[in-house]
Every structure is written in C-alpha cells, then in structure tokens.
Amino acid sequence: MSKQQVSLFWFRRDLRLDDNAGLFQALQSSKVVIPLFIFDDAILDKLPVNDARVNFIHQSLSTVQDALAQIGSSLLVKKGQTHVVWKSLLEEYDIQNVFYNKDYEPYALERDAAICELLEQSNVKVQAFKDQVIFEEKEITKADGLTYTVYTPFKNKWLEKYKTMAPVVEYDTESLYANFHKNSYAMPTLEEIGFEKSVITVKPHNLKFISNYQDTRDFPAMDKTSYLSPHLRFGTVSVRKLVNWAFHKNDVFLSELIWREFFMQILFNFPKIANRNFKSAYDGIEWRNDEADFKRWCEGKTGYPMVDAGMRQLNETGYMHNRVRMVVASFLCKHLLIEWQWGEAYFAQKLLDYDMSANVGNWQWAAGTGCDAAPYFRVFNPDIQQKKFDEKGSYIRKWIKEFDLGYGKPMVEHAMARDRAIATYKAGILK
Questions:
Q1: What are the residue boundaries of the Photolyase/cryptochrome alpha/beta domain, all occurrences included (predicted)?
Q2: How many domains is the chain partitioned into structurally?
Q3: Is there a catalytic annotation at residue 50?
Q4: Is 245 a catalytic residue?
C-alpha cells in the first residue's frame, strides 16, 4: 500500500499559525501539510530540567496544537538528534516538500545545511523563507555591497527601504487551513521530553505603554516595557505585524526593533563574534577573570545596588530591564575586568529572551570590543545610573529586601576601577 504524499512544515523560531511566511508557502503547495516541531537533543542536553524557555516552547506548541485540533489537524512533535529524526520521517512518510523559516545563528545554519543535504539526497524539495526579520542577511548594505557595522547608517538605510514597501505584506495563513493534513498526533508532556515545570514563566506581551515609550523605557521601577522580547525570540508574534504597527506608533520603539535586525545581520556576516571580539585589536587585553568576583556578580552581591538588583531580578525571573543590563554588563567588564564572554554565557543560561545576536552584540557594546563607535573609556558609574533612573530606590528595594537594613560596601571603588579599566584597555589594545 503506497503512502500518501505530503509536505512538511518545520516549526522552529516561529511558534504561531498567524502570519507565518514559510507556513503560508507550505499551505499553497500541492500536497497536504503536516506541521512538525523537533525538540533538538543537541540544544536540550545543555539545559537544566526546569528550563523556563523549554516550558514556554511547550506551552506555545500546545496553543498551536489546540488551534489545529479545531480544524481537524494536528502538530507532529518529535524529540532527538535532528538528523536522526529526519531519517525516521523519511522512512515513515512520502515527503515531497519541506518548508521552513530561516534561522541565522551559527548552530542553526550548520544544522539546516546538514538537513537540507539529507533531504535533497532523498529527492525532497526544500524551501526556506524569511520570517523573523523584515530584512535579512545582505538586504541592507552600503552602496559598495559591504555590511554596515555602525547602527545609525544601517537604521537610515533600513527605514529608507521599508518606506518604499510599507506596510510589509502579512501572510493570510488562515485562508489556507483546509490544506493541513487531517490527523491527530499525541502531544508529548514536558516530562516525556525530560523536563519539569518551572517556577519562572514568560509574561504576556503588552503594547499599551508604547505611545510614550521614549519617556518611560529607562526607568525600571515604572515597569512600562513591552515584554515582547521572548515572544520575538520564539516567534509567537509576527515581526511584520509588529513593525507595521510600530511604524505609526513610536519611532523609538521601532528603533529597538531595527537594533534587533542590525545585530542579526552582524552575527550572520561576522559569525566569529559569537565568541570572539568584533574588533580584533582588543584581543590583547589582559583580563583579571577573577572567579570569586564573578560569583559575587552572578549572585548580586557586589555592593552596588543597581547592579545587584538587576542580577537578582534576572536570577529570580529570567528578566532584566534593558537600562539595568547595560549597567551590570559594564560593571563586569570594566569594574571587574572580566571578559564579556563570561557574562554573555551567564545571560544565555538565565535570560528568557536569550537571542545570541542581541546578547553578543550588547555584551560587546558594553565591553567596547564590538561594532560600536563609542571609545573604550565609556565606563558607567552604577551610583549615578541609580540616581538618574531609580532615584527613589523603588526598583532596588523590590529586589534587594535587605537594602534599608544597612547595605554592604561596594566590592570595588568606582574611581579606582575606572582608572584601572582605562589603563588596562590602553595597554592591551593591539597596534
């Protein structure tokens, strides 16, 4: 008995049915579409069993599954090494086409190239689409075709190109739902994929404060940010809908979305930055890399209230306000002279919105080693940052319960640390 010919759509960082570029294309193919998600052991094996991001992925997949059930379809969820999973799928189904949305991180590019080779060897047509950005790879370049490495000219070119096509076309996937494969697959539980429920949860995104975003975004106690970042990271929201909306609502908020694409293009075009300095002249800096100091930073016990509040918020919730991220990152790299890679790796473990391009880009910005025009002697004073952005100490008291009981002394004096950092950078920069 011959197998039914099918197309597969492979969900990854696009966990939604609505306005999904690759899914829209898949549903227009001549074969019925089986939606697929693979829990990749190469990623899961590095995570703790209560990882909140895996919880969020599972929750988001359950939402997709419930929606598919309403139309008599179902999500096929697998777990294992992706190469092994795809080999078994090729044996189980007569796969004619595979559709997916692109991912631009180094591991994803390597994985996808290997899977594409496997599928093409089996005479499966593979198609990849742009979905998590407005402009990708080399779509925003200088006149000579080179990649922008400074944000402002990138932003200007991005806006110029966007305005010629605004609004960006959104994909009406719902009109094609009849083309989903009619089936019912069992959704594995968290426990069945080797995980357990986390006490940390992803908050719903909230756009009601965006109209005056520029006035409130730097004050952590006000808590008037969008909480969009994890949803953008895992694709539970459409970036096209968001940008088309933001373009008419708030320029500063739109600029943050453009920063996201800037860092994605930097990582794609300069993959070495995943763990090496963008500016190789900074490779000669002699970092202190003191493990005891790093531990105090991780635990939020540096004696600087703004730094400690941020780290405690991160450890307890998986979130950290963006202004505070700049302060804690600067403190680690400049005050303690600990390499940015240490902080980047810790954030990668803890942040609900961890995205390699943004995390690496912002850590190198803080360290002064990235594609940023500011000189290396920019050193944030944590006390001044506290007075400017949390003058009454409301944010600090929320996360440091013992703050009013006599808080400890700073582990390093600011003026000394600043002078030491500048001297160390100056001596280490390669001529």
A1: 5-134
A2: 3
A3: no
A4: no
State whether 57 and 77 are in the same domain: yes
- State how far the Cα of 188 lies from the Cα of 67, in Å rounded to an integer: 17
Q: Catalytic site residue 10?
A: no
Q: What angle do CA 345, 347, 351 make, to 5 degrees?
A: 140
Integer Rg of the chain from CA: 23
Q: Which amino acid is at 259?
A: W
Strand-strand pairing, 125-129 and 94-101: parallel
Catalytic member of 136, 183, 244, 259: 259
Residue 10 lies in a domain: yes
Residue at a domain's end among 216, 241, 269: 269
Q: Are residues 17 and 118 in the same domain?
A: yes
Residue 227: pLDDT band by 50, 70, 90 thresholds?
very high
pLDDT in tens, 270-297: 999 999 999 999 999 999 999 999 999 9
DSSP H helical ranges for 189-238: 213-216, 229-234
- 340 has catalytic annotation: yes
Give domain status of residue 173, yes or no.
no
Beta bridge partners of 180: 33
Q: Which range marks the domain in which residue 160 is found?
A: 133-168+207-269
Determine which one of 10, 363, 365, 399 is catalytic. Answer: 363
State the catalytic residue, choosing from 10, 158, 340, 342.
Answer: 340
Same domain, 323 and 414: yes
| CATH number of the domain within which 338 lies | 1.10.579.10
Q: Is residue 185 part of a domain?
A: no
pLDDT in tens, 26-77: 999 999 999 999 999 999 999 999 999 999 999 999 999 999 999 999 999 9
- Taking the C-alpha atoms of residue 409 and residue 403, their distance in angstroms, rounded to an integer, is 12
- CA dist 376 and 365 (Å) reads 9
Answer with the one of 104, 131, 158 that is the final residue of a domain.
131
